[in-house]
Design a protein that fits this description.
This protein has about 350 residues and is of the alpha/beta class. The protein is about 40% helix and about 15% strand. The protein is built from 14 helices and 12 strands. The strands form 2 sheets. The chain has a 6-stranded parallel sheet, sandwiched between helices. Strand 1, helix 1 (about 15-25) and strand 2 form a beta-alpha-beta unit. The longest helix is centred in the last third of the chain and has 17 residues, at about 310-325.
Length: about 350
């Protein structure tokens, strides 16, 4: 099986890179086109904001990716063209692929809510009808994607990368640097802040690793520690292993009902304390493989209880870790399921 993998492959904690690693394991032969660019240009920022105001303007390419795809299609015939997010891919490129290699199945995957404009681009919208399949981890946008012109939509759960997300052995220095009674790794959002301040106001020690917007609260009180650096390497997994309790907040801007943290925390044998949703409860049994909350008061009560009951806490973390394995929440298992559904590999 030949696969052409297209995406942004920079950064060890990049989930797109993790999916590419998984694709290399299922393919007999794989080629890659990297769409990453650093830094993000001023021109791209301006065009993106014009697009947000409903001006039909295409994002510029990052790395001549459209011509690179065409050149590879000229040389080889691929069973799968896997495009991760693909906001800089032109519809003309997909049309070219279909003409040159009509048996190639073109798949779009994105971990974001691609029914929302802030995650899209003009060319992404134009590309939607040309994808044979769109794969999403947002169950609630399936009809939206179909209304935008998608032929087939496949829903999958979020996935983790077992060669990156796994329980780390922690040194004393690691425990001091990353450890806390309660911890959170992620971007700033108002609702997340309110929940974390509520815990700190009630005497729960919380440590946060995130973007610069958190820094305003660095001196909030002695129970809240805001670190001044983000976690982009294996340090991310060390933190998930070091926290006694790992908080999992859902991104309100995307209307999430599960997130990458949902599986990454238990994959690192962390104790998952997440917002309660039906999808979360289906993925991890409540109070057996993970613990959930629906209000700040419940969040506080769960933190107090499980900080005081170490044996229960560790058992739940262990059961959550086992569930990741037994239910096939890894990237390679997710990709295999997708390829089974599109008829490229057998489910036998």
């Amino acid at each position: 099986m030949r696969i052409l993998s297209v995406g942004t492959f920079n950064g060890l904690s990049n989930t797109c890179l993790h999916r590419h690693w998984a694709l290399t394991k299922v393919a007999d032969e794989i080629d890659a086109v990297d769409t990453a660019i650093n830094p993000y240009s001023l021109k791209s920022r301006i065009i993106y904001h014009l697009f947000l105001y409903h001006i039909r303007i295409r994002m510029p390419e990052n790395n001549d990716e459209n011509n690179k795809i065409k050149n590879l299609i000229d040389k080889k015939r691929y069973d799968i063209l896997w495009i991760d997010k693909g906001v800089t891919i032109f519809p003309e490129t997909l049309i070219y692929v279909k003409k040159k290699s009509p048996n190639t199945i073109i798949i779009s995957y994105s971990p974001d809510n691609m029914a929302l404009r802030h995650n899209q681009s003009q060319q992404y919208i134009e590309c939607i009808p040309w994808y044979d399949y769109i794969v999403t981890n947002k169950s609630y946008i399936i009809n939206d994607l179909k209304h935008l012109g998608s032929q087939n939509v496949i829903f999958v759960n979020n996935a983790y990368e077992p060669t990156f997300h796994y329980p780390r052995k922690l040194s004393d220095a690691d425990k001091s640097k990353f450890g806390s009674d309660v911890g959170f790794v992620g971007a700033f959002e108002k609702e997340r802040l309110e929940s974390i301040l509520y815990l700190a106001d009630h005497g729960i020690h919380v440590k946060v690793f995130g973007d610069r917007l958190w820094q305003k609260y660095k001196k909030y009180n002695r129970y809240l520690t805001i670190e001044d650096f983000e976690l982009k390497t294996e340090d991310y997994c060390k933190a998930l292993s070091a926290f006694k309790i790992s908080l999992c907040f859902l991104r309100k801007k995307n209307y999430d009902t599960q997130t990458t943290r949902t599986v990454e925390i238990p994959a690192c044998r962390g104790f998952l304390l997440a917002e309660r949703t039906e999808e979360h409860k289906r993925m991890f049994r409540e109070d057996e493989e993970a613990v959930y909350f629906s209000s700040n008061r419940e969040l506080l009560n769960k933190c107090i209880y499980y900080l005081e009951h170490e044996a229960e806490r560790k058992k739940i973390a262990e059961e959550g870790y086992k569930r990741c394995i037994t239910s096939g929440y890894s990237n390679i298992e997710m990709i295999r399921k997708v390829l089974e559904k599109v008829g490229v590999i057998s489910n036998e």
